[in-house]
Specification:
Shape: globular
Strand order of the largest sheet: 1-2
Helix content: 40-55%
InterPro entries: IsoCit/isopropylmalate_DH_CS (IPR019818), IsoPropMal-DH-like_dom (IPR024084)
Largest sheet: 2 strands, parallel
Bound molecules: adenosine-5'-triphosphate, magnesium ion
Structural class: mainly alpha
Protein name: isocitrate dehydrogenase (NAD(+))
Strand content: 5-15%
Distance between the termini: 26 Å
Order of helices and strands: EHEHHHHHHEEHHH
Organism: Drosophila yakuba (Fruit fly)
Family: Belongs to the isocitrate and isopropylmalate dehydrogenases family.
Keywords: Oxidoreductase, Tricarboxylic acid cycle
Length: about 250
Protein backbone atom coordinates (compact mmCIF):
# COMPACT_ATOMS: atom_id res chain seq x y z
CA UNK A 1 0.00 0.00 0.00
CA UNK A 2 1.26 3.50 -0.95
CA UNK A 3 4.79 2.48 -1.92
CA UNK A 4 5.73 6.08 -2.76
CA UNK A 5 7.05 7.94 0.27
CA UNK A 6 7.28 8.08 4.05
CA UNK A 7 6.25 5.24 6.34
CA UNK A 8 4.47 2.43 4.53
CA UNK A 9 1.67 0.38 5.96
CA UNK A 10 1.98 -3.40 5.73
CA UNK A 11 -0.68 -5.89 6.78
CA UNK A 12 0.76 -8.66 8.93
CA UNK A 13 -1.02 -11.97 9.37
CA UNK A 14 0.80 -13.97 12.07
CA UNK A 15 -1.55 -16.97 11.72
CA UNK A 16 -1.29 -19.93 14.07
CA UNK A 17 1.32 -22.55 15.06
CA UNK A 18 4.79 -20.99 14.93
CA UNK A 19 3.33 -18.00 13.03
CA UNK A 20 3.12 -15.62 16.00
CA UNK A 21 6.72 -16.34 17.21
CA UNK A 22 8.38 -15.97 13.83
CA UNK A 23 6.27 -12.88 13.05
CA UNK A 24 7.42 -11.31 16.30
CA UNK A 25 11.03 -12.13 15.35
CA UNK A 26 10.66 -10.43 11.98
CA UNK A 27 9.06 -7.37 13.59
CA UNK A 28 11.91 -7.15 16.08
CA UNK A 29 14.53 -7.35 13.33
CA UNK A 30 12.71 -4.73 11.25
CA UNK A 31 12.65 -2.41 14.26
CA UNK A 32 16.39 -2.94 14.83
CA UNK A 33 17.00 -2.06 11.18
CA UNK A 34 14.77 1.04 11.41
CA UNK A 35 12.66 -0.07 8.45
CA UNK A 36 10.09 2.65 7.70
CA UNK A 37 7.10 0.34 7.96
CA UNK A 38 3.99 0.44 10.05
CA UNK A 39 2.52 -3.01 10.72
CA UNK A 40 -1.20 -3.58 10.74
CA UNK A 41 -1.72 -6.98 12.38
CA UNK A 42 -4.78 -8.98 11.37
CA UNK A 43 -5.99 -12.13 13.08
CA UNK A 44 -7.33 -14.67 10.63
CA UNK A 45 -6.74 -17.76 12.77
CA UNK A 46 -8.95 -20.42 11.25
CA UNK A 47 -11.30 -22.49 13.35
CA UNK A 48 -10.15 -26.05 12.76
CA UNK A 49 -13.04 -28.38 12.01
CA UNK A 50 -12.57 -32.13 11.94
CA UNK A 51 -14.92 -34.15 9.80
CA UNK A 52 -15.59 -37.71 10.92
CA UNK A 53 -16.45 -40.10 8.12
CA UNK A 54 -18.49 -43.09 9.35
CA UNK A 55 -16.79 -46.44 8.62
CA UNK A 56 -19.67 -47.47 6.37
CA UNK A 57 -19.00 -44.48 4.11
CA UNK A 58 -15.39 -45.50 3.58
CA UNK A 59 -16.27 -49.11 2.92
CA UNK A 60 -18.95 -48.36 0.38
CA UNK A 61 -16.76 -45.99 -1.59
CA UNK A 62 -13.90 -48.50 -1.59
CA UNK A 63 -16.23 -51.19 -2.92
CA UNK A 64 -17.50 -48.81 -5.54
CA UNK A 65 -13.96 -48.11 -6.67
CA UNK A 66 -13.07 -51.81 -6.85
CA UNK A 67 -16.18 -52.83 -8.72
CA UNK A 68 -15.56 -50.12 -11.27
CA UNK A 69 -12.05 -51.43 -11.87
CA UNK A 70 -13.15 -55.06 -12.19
CA UNK A 71 -15.89 -53.98 -14.59
CA UNK A 72 -13.20 -52.92 -17.05
CA UNK A 73 -11.17 -56.07 -16.30
CA UNK A 74 -8.53 -54.34 -14.21
CA UNK A 75 -6.59 -56.39 -11.66
CA UNK A 76 -5.50 -54.25 -8.73
CA UNK A 77 -2.07 -54.87 -7.21
CA UNK A 78 -1.49 -51.77 -5.15
CA UNK A 79 -1.56 -48.07 -5.73
CA UNK A 80 0.72 -47.61 -8.57
CA UNK A 81 -1.18 -50.21 -10.58
CA UNK A 82 -4.63 -48.89 -9.74
CA UNK A 83 -3.53 -45.48 -10.86
CA UNK A 84 -4.08 -43.30 -7.81
CA UNK A 85 -4.80 -39.84 -9.12
CA UNK A 86 -3.56 -40.76 -12.57
CA UNK A 87 -6.30 -43.35 -12.87
CA UNK A 88 -9.06 -40.85 -12.37
CA UNK A 89 -7.75 -37.72 -14.05
CA UNK A 90 -5.11 -38.78 -16.47
CA UNK A 91 -4.28 -41.58 -18.78
CA UNK A 92 -0.54 -42.11 -19.23
CA UNK A 93 2.32 -42.09 -16.71
CA UNK A 94 3.47 -38.82 -15.06
CA UNK A 95 1.02 -36.28 -16.35
CA UNK A 96 -2.64 -35.57 -15.63
CA UNK A 97 -3.94 -35.15 -19.15
CA UNK A 98 -7.23 -33.51 -18.26
CA UNK A 99 -6.10 -30.88 -15.79
CA UNK A 100 -2.54 -30.43 -17.06
CA UNK A 101 -3.68 -30.28 -20.66
CA UNK A 102 -5.43 -26.94 -20.17
CA UNK A 103 -2.50 -25.61 -18.16
CA UNK A 104 -0.06 -26.65 -20.84
CA UNK A 105 -2.12 -25.02 -23.61
CA UNK A 106 -2.26 -21.75 -21.67
CA UNK A 107 1.48 -21.78 -20.99
CA UNK A 108 2.30 -22.57 -24.64
CA UNK A 109 0.07 -19.69 -25.76
CA UNK A 110 1.82 -17.35 -23.36
CA UNK A 111 5.27 -18.59 -24.37
CA UNK A 112 4.50 -17.77 -28.01
CA UNK A 113 3.74 -14.20 -27.03
CA UNK A 114 7.18 -13.82 -25.46
CA UNK A 115 9.63 -15.44 -27.90
CA UNK A 116 12.53 -13.63 -26.24
CA UNK A 117 12.04 -15.90 -23.23
CA UNK A 118 13.44 -19.37 -23.83
CA UNK A 119 10.73 -21.95 -23.17
CA UNK A 120 11.15 -25.65 -22.43
CA UNK A 121 8.61 -28.34 -21.41
CA UNK A 122 9.60 -31.05 -18.94
CA UNK A 123 7.85 -33.82 -17.05
CA UNK A 124 7.91 -33.51 -13.27
CA UNK A 125 9.87 -36.72 -12.65
CA UNK A 126 12.65 -35.48 -14.93
CA UNK A 127 12.65 -32.12 -13.16
CA UNK A 128 12.96 -33.85 -9.75
CA UNK A 129 15.94 -35.86 -10.97
CA UNK A 130 17.68 -32.85 -12.50
CA UNK A 131 16.89 -30.67 -9.54
CA UNK A 132 18.76 -32.99 -7.21
CA UNK A 133 21.68 -33.69 -9.57
CA UNK A 134 22.13 -30.31 -11.20
CA UNK A 135 19.81 -27.56 -9.88
CA UNK A 136 21.71 -24.88 -11.82
CA UNK A 137 20.06 -26.27 -14.95
CA UNK A 138 16.85 -24.39 -14.17
CA UNK A 139 15.93 -20.75 -13.82
CA UNK A 140 12.18 -20.10 -13.59
CA UNK A 141 9.78 -23.04 -13.22
CA UNK A 142 6.08 -22.73 -13.98
CA UNK A 143 3.69 -25.52 -12.94
CA UNK A 144 0.29 -26.25 -11.40
CA UNK A 145 -0.15 -25.92 -7.65
CA UNK A 146 0.22 -29.54 -6.53
CA UNK A 147 3.50 -30.07 -8.40
CA UNK A 148 4.86 -26.77 -7.11
CA UNK A 149 3.86 -27.69 -3.58
CA UNK A 150 5.81 -30.94 -3.70
CA UNK A 151 8.79 -29.66 -5.68
CA UNK A 152 9.25 -26.56 -3.51
CA UNK A 153 9.45 -28.72 -0.37
CA UNK A 154 12.05 -30.89 -2.10
CA UNK A 155 14.04 -27.81 -3.07
CA UNK A 156 13.79 -26.51 0.48
CA UNK A 157 15.27 -29.80 1.66
CA UNK A 158 18.19 -29.35 -0.72
CA UNK A 159 19.17 -25.99 0.71
CA UNK A 160 18.73 -26.65 4.42
CA UNK A 161 15.06 -27.15 5.09
CA UNK A 162 11.72 -25.42 5.32
CA UNK A 163 13.04 -22.99 7.90
CA UNK A 164 14.95 -21.15 5.16
CA UNK A 165 12.76 -20.76 2.11
CA UNK A 166 10.81 -17.58 1.39
CA UNK A 167 8.03 -16.98 -1.12
CA UNK A 168 6.19 -14.11 -2.74
CA UNK A 169 2.99 -13.66 -4.72
CA UNK A 170 3.00 -10.52 -6.85
CA UNK A 171 -0.24 -9.15 -8.26
CA UNK A 172 -1.21 -6.01 -10.13
CA UNK A 173 -2.71 -4.33 -7.08
CA UNK A 174 -0.59 -5.70 -4.31
CA UNK A 175 1.63 -8.52 -3.19
CA UNK A 176 1.75 -11.18 -0.51
CA UNK A 177 4.89 -12.66 1.03
CA UNK A 178 5.03 -15.76 3.21
CA UNK A 179 7.35 -18.53 4.27
CA UNK A 180 7.06 -21.78 2.31
CA UNK A 181 6.54 -23.89 5.44
CA UNK A 182 3.27 -24.48 7.28
CA UNK A 183 2.36 -23.95 10.90
CA UNK A 184 4.89 -26.52 12.21
CA UNK A 185 2.55 -27.60 15.05
CA UNK A 186 5.21 -30.00 16.45
CA UNK A 187 7.46 -27.13 17.55
CA UNK A 188 4.90 -24.35 18.03
CA UNK A 189 5.04 -22.20 21.15
CA UNK A 190 8.48 -23.50 22.17
CA UNK A 191 10.71 -20.74 20.79
CA UNK A 192 12.40 -23.34 18.56
CA UNK A 193 11.33 -22.25 15.08
CA UNK A 194 13.73 -20.80 12.55
CA UNK A 195 12.38 -17.36 11.54
CA UNK A 196 14.66 -17.11 8.47
CA UNK A 197 12.02 -18.23 5.96
CA UNK A 198 9.61 -15.51 7.04
CA UNK A 199 12.44 -12.98 7.39
CA UNK A 200 13.63 -13.61 3.83
CA UNK A 201 10.02 -13.35 2.65
CA UNK A 202 9.92 -9.95 4.34
CA UNK A 203 13.23 -9.06 2.66
CA UNK A 204 11.65 -9.98 -0.67
CA UNK A 205 8.79 -7.67 0.25
CA UNK A 206 11.23 -4.81 0.97
CA UNK A 207 12.77 -5.24 -2.49
CA UNK A 208 9.28 -5.25 -4.03
CA UNK A 209 8.64 -1.97 -2.19
CA UNK A 210 11.97 -0.63 -3.44
CA UNK A 211 13.43 -0.45 0.06
CA UNK A 212 16.56 -2.22 -1.18
CA UNK A 213 19.03 -0.74 1.28
CA UNK A 214 17.04 -2.14 4.21
CA UNK A 215 16.60 -5.46 2.41
CA UNK A 216 20.34 -5.83 1.78
CA UNK A 217 21.24 -4.87 5.34
CA UNK A 218 18.84 -7.37 6.92
CA UNK A 219 19.74 -10.15 4.52
CA UNK A 220 23.45 -9.65 5.19
CA UNK A 221 22.93 -9.78 8.97
CA UNK A 222 20.87 -12.98 8.67
CA UNK A 223 23.34 -14.70 6.33
CA UNK A 224 26.29 -13.74 8.54
CA UNK A 225 24.55 -15.12 11.60
CA UNK A 226 23.89 -18.40 9.80
CA UNK A 227 27.43 -18.55 8.39
CA UNK A 228 29.04 -17.99 11.80
CA UNK A 229 27.04 -20.92 13.11
CA UNK A 230 27.05 -19.80 16.75
CA UNK A 231 23.32 -19.20 17.04
CA UNK A 232 21.66 -21.78 14.82
CA UNK A 233 18.21 -23.16 15.49
CA UNK A 234 17.59 -26.91 15.75
CA UNK A 235 16.57 -27.42 12.12
CA UNK A 236 20.07 -26.23 11.09
CA UNK A 237 21.78 -28.44 13.63
CA UNK A 238 22.22 -25.81 16.34
CA UNK A 239 20.86 -25.36 19.85
CA UNK A 240 19.78 -21.73 19.77
CA UNK A 241 16.26 -20.57 20.45
CA UNK A 242 14.35 -18.57 17.87
CA UNK A 243 14.78 -15.54 20.14
CA UNK A 244 18.57 -16.01 20.48
CA UNK A 245 19.03 -16.27 16.71
CA UNK A 246 16.82 -13.18 16.32
CA UNK A 247 18.77 -11.21 18.93
CA UNK A 248 22.05 -12.00 17.17
CA UNK A 249 20.68 -10.63 13.89
CA UNK A 250 19.47 -7.52 15.74
CA UNK A 251 22.89 -7.10 17.36
CA UNK A 252 24.54 -7.19 13.92
CA UNK A 253 22.11 -4.58 12.64
P1 LIG B 1 0.79 -27.48 8.08
O1 LIG B 1 -0.35 -28.43 8.06
O2 LIG B 1 0.45 -26.15 8.67
O3 LIG B 1 1.50 -27.39 6.75
P2 LIG B 1 2.81 -29.35 8.85
O4 LIG B 1 2.60 -30.34 9.91
O5 LIG B 1 2.79 -29.80 7.43
O6 LIG B 1 1.84 -28.11 9.07
P3 LIG B 1 5.09 -27.80 8.25
O7 LIG B 1 5.02 -26.42 8.76
O8 LIG B 1 4.81 -27.98 6.80
O9 LIG B 1 4.19 -28.70 9.15
O10 LIG B 1 6.49 -28.37 8.68
C1 LIG B 1 6.97 -29.64 8.33
C2 LIG B 1 8.17 -29.95 9.22
O11 LIG B 1 9.18 -28.94 9.08
C3 LIG B 1 7.81 -29.96 10.70
O12 LIG B 1 8.51 -31.01 11.34
C4 LIG B 1 8.27 -28.63 11.22
O13 LIG B 1 8.66 -28.63 12.56
C5 LIG B 1 9.44 -28.29 10.32
N1 LIG B 1 9.48 -26.84 10.13
C6 LIG B 1 8.65 -26.10 9.37
N2 LIG B 1 8.91 -24.81 9.45
C7 LIG B 1 9.96 -24.69 10.29
C8 LIG B 1 10.69 -23.58 10.79
N3 LIG B 1 10.42 -22.31 10.44
N4 LIG B 1 11.71 -23.82 11.66
C9 LIG B 1 12.01 -25.08 12.02
N5 LIG B 1 11.35 -26.17 11.59
C10 LIG B 1 10.33 -25.99 10.74
MG1 LIG C 1 2.96 -28.65 5.61
Amino acid sequence: RSYSSGTKKVTLIPGDGIGPEISAAVQKIFTAANVPIEWEAVDVTPVRVSVVIPPSGIISSTCHFKSKLSAIGFEAHGRLTTGGNYGRLGRLANIMRMSDGLFLRCVRDMAQKFPEIQFEEKYLDTVCLNMVQNPGKYDVLVMPNLYGDILSDMCAGLVGGLGLTPSGNMGLNGALFESVHGTAPDIAGKDLANPTALLLSAVMMLRHMELNTYADKIERAAFETIKEGKYLTGDLGGRAKCSEFTNEICAKL
